[in-house]
Design brief:
InterPro entries: ARF7EP_C. This protein has 166 residues and is mainly α. The chain is 31% helix and 4% strand.
Length: 166
């Protein structure tokens, strides 16, 4: 097909040092968004509101009932979502500021032995050797019993629980 004559395009490619004809980059077509998601959401809610107004207009309701429905002062969504929380159970301390049991007045060690003068390391918070893993100052719970591992029948029950019942 090459008859010896070259076209002007072929001369331009050879003069530029290119072996192949120039290629155009592919165009990428990106669909432009005419509406943002926020706009379309607002538009949909406006359409729903207008449909509701039309439904109320065609409905056989009195004007007072319609005004109650369309009253902007009443916020139905806020009243539906706000639910009262039940009051929290207030835990009163069982021990006072010195670590003594409030109702009985007994200074019992956490090993639950009456004769013990304190068998734990001194407490970091109050300095008492009678506090176990938690400090007894304003503690809200009482140790019910201590069960020794390896001994099936070895269990020490708290004397304070017995004295409270009597």
């Amino acid at each position: 097909m090459n008859s010896g004559t070259t076209s002007s395009e072929d001369e331009n490619y050879h003069s530029n040092g290119q072996d192949h004809p120039r290629q155009r980059p592919a165009k990428k077509y990106i669909a432009s968004r005419t509406q943002s998601t926020g706009y379309s959401r607002r538009r949909k809610t406006a359409e729903r509101a207008s449909k509701a107004i039309l439904a109320l207009a065609t409905c056989e309701t009195s004007s007072d009932e319609a005004m109650d429905i369309l009253n902007p002062d009443i916020n139905f969504h806020a009243s539906a979502t706000q639910k009262p929380f039940p009051p929290k159970k207030i835990e009163r301390p069982v021990y006072d500021e010195k670590g003594i049991h409030i109702s009985t007045g007994i200074d019992l060690c956490d090993c639950l032995s009456e004769q013990c003068a304190g068998c734990f390391f001194n407490c970091i918070r109050c300095g008492s050797p009678k506090c176990g893993t938690t400090c007894r100052v304003h503690r809200t719970f009482v140790i019910d019993y201590i069960k020794y591992e390896g001994y099936e029948d070895k269990m020490v029950k708290n004397l304070l629980n017995r004295k409270l019942r009597n």
